[in-house]
Amino acid sequence: MSETSTNVINVRGLTKSYGATSVLRGVDFSVARGEVHALLGGNGAGKSTMIKIITGAASKNDGEIRFFDSEGSERSEAEGRAKVAVVHQELALLPHLTVAENIALPHQRRGAGLFRRAAAAGQAYGALRMIDQDFAARSLHRLVGSLSLHEGQMVEIARALSSGAELILLDEPTANLTALETERLFVVLRRLTRDTGLSVVFVSHRMKEIRQIANVCTIIRDGRTVVDRQSMEELTDAGIIEKMGQVATSHAPEGAAPLPEYRRDVGSATDIITIEDAGFRLELLPGTVLGVAGAPAGPAALIEGLTGAARKKRWTVARAGWPDHLRSPRMAARLGAGFVTGDRAHKGVLHSLPIIDNVLASRRVTRGSLLTGRSEGAECVDLLKALKVKAASVWDLPNTLSGGTQQKLLLARWLGVPSRLLVLEEPTRGVDIGTKREIYQLIRQMAASGTVIVWWSTENVELLEVCDRVIAFDTEGRCAGMLERDVFSEEKLVSLTGMAA
Ligand SMILES: Nc1ncnc2c1ncn2[C@@H]1O[C@H](COP(=O)(O)OP(=O)(O)OP(=O)(O)O)[C@@H](O)[C@H]1O
Fold first, then answer.
1. Which tens digit of pLDDT belongs to each residue from 280-295?
2. 401 alpha carbon to ligand 1 midpoint, in Å?
3. 48 CA → ligand 1 middle, Å
4. What secondary structure does DSSP assign to 194-263, as a single string?
């Protein structure tokens, strides 16, 4: 499609290198007014880098970026950028300010004069209630630092929606949202694009959501545009995956390698882990992959119990040889309970330490040694290979890797560590379609070696594909039921979790 006066932005021939690494090699990208535009590509393709250059957070080497107003007249770069809001993969909120203050902040930056608390609260309430009225009513004056990851995500999205921007760039906005919140967000986006001409760029690896919300897509592969503004209707899922260069490891069930089966003979009775809450008791045999579904309150409490992080004791976790209560994450790790956090930026990645320390952190804790061993370099390279992570050097910092690749580092931490229990919070967050499939394989392989896997995901389809059983929590955080593999269905999960949109 050609550049038209209805476009809000045109990017042409964008290039960017970090040292010797060429990240963008001539990207073309344009967004029309009033459309939801899916920006697609595998991990490391260059999507976030382009977004950073559009917003001015990173500089370009070459190419042009032109912004236009609703009449089709060109805007200056500064004017154009002032009409762009972005929700990054990693949240950018100020923890010591309240929800209302965080949402009102962009308006202050644009020179609205004195900070008017009541006006800010009104504005924040209006923005938040578009996504969740209850949350808006109870959270306006809470400090952002006290919010959960998914609450923070809603605040960040509300901030973008209320910023007066004409172009909103959403980089994996639904990764921390429940199905209901995602559906509400989509309703708002459809309304705003239709009624106000807002343009939305939507970056996601979740094909189902992309189909639900986007009219048109651009696909980037290895820093180049391989599909430029094509209608979603003209592309099949398989076609999109192929354009992304991921045909060999497609998520499509046909042709995909089968996942290792659930084996009941990989451990003894003493290896059983029992979890118990008021009126609910579950025995987890070694090799089980237990899926956890539902709004965050219930899964979060279970995960805190399993990882030694619970401040109040709600869940009892028992295993032969374990104390009555896992008192700390360190104790849990030493006893063989691993954890991959869903809050990659704040609780997962060690930002100031090189990739090698990030990957080997769990080994060092479980071995009780913080000293770097000679063999560690080779060990780290092997782990990165297993997850197909391409890093220039294991001594680089993790922020030189794309978001999805950083997620793989967190998983690599527990690969090959002999754990009895591995708790995963959204382990495929931000991970591309091809790599997701590889992660499913790895998870099943870990289970096949006797590890109990507990896996919270907001993507019901992946739970149903990989897990042996799924425990569902309702919106109040109560355990609503348990599904065994032979009776799995999305409808049942939706009804148990109370998250039918
Ligand atoms: N500061 C940096 N220094 C060196 N390389 C970098 C830096 N930032 C990004 N890169 C590299 O640029 C490439 C593109 O990264 P980018 O984050 O744009 O990918 P992406 O398409 O957004 O991927 P994802 O889907 O995983 O978020 C990656 O190979 C990454 O390692």
1. 888 888 889 999 998 8
2. 5
3. 7
4. HHH--EEEEE-S-HHHHHHH-SEEEEEETTEEEEEEEEGGG--HHHHHHHTT-GGG-SSSTTSPPPPPP-
